[in-house]
Amino acid sequence: MTTEADLERIDKVNERFDRLTRHSGMPLKTGETHTLMTFIPAPGTRAAYDAALTYVAICLECNKPRPVRIEDVDEVSCPICPKCHGTGRLREHQFITFVAEVGRGKTHLALGIGWQWISNGYGTVKYWQVSELLDAMRAEYDNPPKDQYEQPLPGVFDRAKGCDLLILDDLGAEYHKQGGGQSWVDEKLDTLINYRWLEEKCTVFTTNLQPSQLQSRLRSRIKEGVVVTLEGIDYREFKAKQRREVKV
Fold it and tell me: Which residues of the chain have pLDDT under 50?
């Protein structure tokens, strides 16, 4: 029987979930369309899908999250799954990068990690297209945020540094958009990513580029983490084909 205390606890959990999603920057519609459970592994994407599940402590056998925070787990096993019998795996590194051409599903996996992160109660999430993050930082350079008493507030750069999970989508596209400001781009990205690397903060990257094509310090940090490549046919075409086959 559900008690009043149970209902109050549920309300608090739902309130926290809503607050975290509103401030995450993730498009709210993707909470329905871009979750890990709605991703359909296609030929060439299974390894990336499994890596995403492992990253948020989802058992690869039963698709259930472990009932603990990741930092509280000190053994490489899944304590609840009667199906996998302790074969569940933990995250290999705090950095994970999905590499693929356009349309292979890497953003779906990155957002899916974000939604699962909040659902599991792991903390705050910030999602940014890299070029949009840099635009926002530029805008705040001459007009830093302040409260009603003219006291400084944390800007987008500080929030990107401090969140529990940062998702940086389309890494590398900023070089085409920023043009002549490449040195500034390199400096800001290097500062942000190096800070999160030193603090061991979880960070998800997606990129169309191979790591070897990225700036050298950034390349070094990314290659130290988990790098998975999505291959095969266009993911959108694959999903459309799956829908047609279901109808038949």
Answer: 67-80, 82-88, 179-181
